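note to self: dont lose this again. the chain is below, predicted strucutre after it. 117 aa total, dont forget to put it in the shared folder this time
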Amino acid sequence: MTLEVRLATLLQEVADVPLVELPRLRGLLMEAEAGLLLRLRKEGPQANSAGTTRLPKADEPLLTVEEALSLAPMPRRTFLRLTRGLPFRRDISRKTVLFERAGLLAWKRVKTGRWAA
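---
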């Protein structure tokens, strides 16, 4: 059975869940999603902006915003806006963002425009 068929079967079963059970089902699905995301972070390959795929190294130090700006100098708000959603950026919390050095350097190499140097 393919993944698509299994998902279609699950979606059909969701339609039959009683209304009072929907919050519980949502919680279970969110738990499954969290497990999936955790597995992807631990085991899954990540494509960097240069188009190559690599596994993140556990011993790779993560850079703070200030350290990242020393490698890619530009206004802080612009840098945070441009890197939003990129695979080398790690949003730890609303105010804490860290960056993988190798991914940042690859992005800087392929980035064109005003701040490419």
